[in-house]
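Structure in, sequence out. Go:
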């Protein structure tokens, strides 16, 4: 099954997470099943010190699965392994209509670049980062013919992504 992957990229504080969150809600409201992948440039922990699963990992478990009647999570310690690629991670996801990827800016998947006045860096990524196909900004932009959206134009961005990936809108299930 072909995966429909679309990225959200930009500098720190450019609005990537907020846009991703709003897009997930809008696609879900339209009846699409959405998965997300978030790249972190730093050490992170989804577990808390003192929990049983944290204690299992601290004791040396390579993988720890936490399972309940509402959700499950699998944590994998890389140890000496290299960071997995986006392609590696995509193979581990359950089937969905769309995968939104936050980060992984050097990947070949199509991306929308987020820009905000409060971003750490103001240099445009379009033109230097591969596969940027549109820009979403809190200010007018001039980007050599790339489609441009206001960061708050969620419906317009959703329509653009659907058209770009040739995905059909679905009714609520």
């Amino acid at each position: 099954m072909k995966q429909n992957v679309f990225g959200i990229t930009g500098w720190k504080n450019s609005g990537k997470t907020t846009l991703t969150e709003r897009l997930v809600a809008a696609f879900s409201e339209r009846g699409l099943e959405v998965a997300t992948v978030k790249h972190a440039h730093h050490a992170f922990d989804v577990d808390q010190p003192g929990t049983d699963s944290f204690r299992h990992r601290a004791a040396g478990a390579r993988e720890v699965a936490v399972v309940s009647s509402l959700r499950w999570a699998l944590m994998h310690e890389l140890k000496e392994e290299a960071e997995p690629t986006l392609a590696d991670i995509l193979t581990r996801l359950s089937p969905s209509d769309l995968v939104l990827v936050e980060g992984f800016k050097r990947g070949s998947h199509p991306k929308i670049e987020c820009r905000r006045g409060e971003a750490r860096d103001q240099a445009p990524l379009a033109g230097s980062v591969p596969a940027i196909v549109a820009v979403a900004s809190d200010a007018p932009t001039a980007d050599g013919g790339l489609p441009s959206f206001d960061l708050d134009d969620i419906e317009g961005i959703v329509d653009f992504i659907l058209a770009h990936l040739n995905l059909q809108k679905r009714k609520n299930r």
